[in-house]
Design goal:
alpha/beta; Rossmann fold; 2 domains; 8 helices; elongated
Length: 283
């Protein structure tokens, strides 16, 4: 079966940029791309007592605007270099973005979500767009790739993967990382920052490290150890010094980051995300 990629869009420049990134990232993969627009009706919220019904003027106007936006996107995609491996589908729905994404994953058996880090109205001061944060925090069924504003595609030759070896890894949760590495000949840099200052792993951490090596077998990977520094500073310095093109986080509530996006580490790295972030889920 072809890879199924969900591309949420609010028709912003940033969303278009993320779509183009996805096309390049999976250039050599047979893909079904689903362009998703979750539309809203002005004056109504999804929490309000009365939800607009199909057939009502405001609802129909918003639906028409959403469908026309998706049609324009399909026209813009025709101007991109043709790729016989890629097929496009559109989904227009009256819903919150996270619920629309959840529904699409369920109905279309989505493998990965690729979206921009900011939306139409996002201020420059904010780390990621609110929508991106919500999707990354709440959607656990599949990985999310968040593409920074105006980031131009370069094959991810160097990937940073910070870990503390505190929990066991699973092959399934890392398969997207392994796939990207094999597609682009990427080197996976496993970065362990020592919080205990002595550099020694306990028995369980050693066992988890070995398990990670077994899962990454067949890819180009290297294990790095960084002495105890402020974690976010250490990772940022590592990304700069090795010219990483992607950073990968495993979103686990009990990781040393806590929950990935509410934790200070990703906020610091993400204040001005320079490279795409692949967020994997512990499912």
């Amino acid at each position: 079966m072809d890879k199924r990629v969900l591309l949420p869009t609010d028709f912003s420049k940033n969303a278009w940029n993320a779509i183009k990134y996805a096309l390049d990232l999976y250039k050599n993969v047979a893909c079904d791309f689903y362009l998703l627009n979750a539309f809203h009706v002005s004056g109504y919220t999804l929490e309000s007592m009365r939800v607009p019904e199909a057939g009502e003027p405001f609802y129909e106007a918003a639906k028409k605007e959403s469908e026309e936006g998706l049609e324009r996107l399909l026209e813009m995609l025709k101007l991109q270099p043709e790729n016989a491996k890629h097929e496009f589908h559109t989904i227009s729905t009256f819903n919150s973005l996270t619920e629309a994404v959840r529904y699409a994953i369920d109905k279309k058996d989505i493998d990965v979500i690729v979206m921009g880090t900011k939306g139409v109205t996002e201020s420059k001061a904010r780390i990621f767009g609110t929508n991106t944060v919500k999707v990354m925090e709440r959607i656990k069924q599949c990985p999310v790739i968040a593409v920074p504003n105006e980031y131009s595609f370069v094959p991810p030759k160097e990937i940073a993967f910070p870990t503390d070896y505190k929990t066991a890894f699973k092959k399934k949760e890392l398969e997207n990382l392994v796939e990207i590495s094999k597609l682009h000949g990427s080197k996976i840099n496993v970065v362990h920052i020592d919080k205990d200052k002595d550099g020694q792993l306990n028995k369980e951490e050693e066992s988890n490290k070995q398990l990670l090596k077994d899962i990454l077998d067949g890819t180009d990977y290297e294990m790095h150890f960084l002495p105890s520094v402020k974690i976010s500073k250490g990772i940022n310095l590592f990304i700069e010094s090795t010219h990483c093109d992607m950073i990968v986080f495993l979103n686990r509530k009990h990781l040393f980051f806590g929950s990935i996006l509410s934790n200070p580490l990703v906020k610091e790295i993400g204040y001005d995300p320079k490279i795409p972030i692949l967020e994997l889920n512990d499912n």
